[in-house]
Design brief:
CATH class: Alpha Beta
Radius of gyration: 16 Å
Helix content: under 10%
Distance between the termini: 17 Å
Number of helices: 3
CATH topology: Phosphatidylethanolamine-binding Protein
Strand content: 25-35%
CATH architecture: Alpha-Beta Complex
Structural class: mainly beta
Strand order of the largest sheet: 10-8-7-11-12
CATH superfamily: PEBP-like
Oligomer: single chain
Shape: globular
Length: about 200
Amino acid sequence: MKVTSSGIEDGFFLDKYGKKGKDRVGGMPSLSIPFKIEDAPEGTVSFAAVLDDYDAIPVCGFDWIHWILADLKKTEVLEGESRNSTDFTEGRNSWCGVLDRCPIETGTGYGGMAPPDKVHRYTLTVYALDCELGLEKGFPLNELFFAMQGHVLDSAMTIGKYGPKKESRSGPAGNRTRVVGSEVQQDIPYPTGPVRPYRKG
């Protein structure tokens, strides 16, 4: 299985998906990234996805969650579908976490990249599951990971960077595609989360 995003160009997410973009909900960047899933294993019933920032740990002390999805029934998510689609259930992001920047209702859905110090690396991980999870809107990441235990058929990830300074990567929307593939994944030995779901079998 593999996951790609047309929102990544030359290894960087386009400016519009983070704090250098124009779209806002409750003060946080809100234009969600597109991504596509290919070669899902036989028996896949739904997908779950997590977009997070391990490079936030030295800054705030924890992995910053930008977007979590459950019960995704399709293999392609388009730009801007967060808070607008009925094809998946969204959990809460870290913008409504311990820093209490916004209420849970506002922080449910996509909260874009906003690194305060330097270029950060953002990991999009997609899990193929043998069931639907049935989580309620606004669920936290720990509920997702524990619900997936024993139901993960396969997983895939891609990594894109985003920096605090303006990049020359904010061109018009289109079908630009840049896959952050195996070379990047080999160079960046990321963990897959604080609680790694057990694979089925």
